[in-house]
Write a structure and sequence with these properties.
single chain; 100 residues; alpha+beta; Alpha-Beta Plaits; 4-stranded antiparallel β-sheet; globular
Amino acid sequence: MILEIAQLQVRSGESAAFEAAFLQAQRIIAAMPGHLSHELTRCVERGGHYVLLVRWQTLADHETGFRKSPQYQEWRALLHHYYEPMPTVLHYEEVRGAAA
């Protein structure tokens, strides 16, 4: 399992519109092969700051299957104009034996 972590900074005053757009966009990602789960969280201390966590079966499911798909273009059209700057996206894998 791969955990994608995207740190999102939404333009000032655009949080409500972004969250509404995300409710639409999440249907796209949830339907992609290899998608296991996702969650969007809003920062309490920093306005407009969010973290998106997406669990994928494999790195290729995200990097190739999703990002190179026609559905990704729809995702981009719905969400990317809200970001300033563009998100940092990193992928993580479990360290065996290090979870409680």
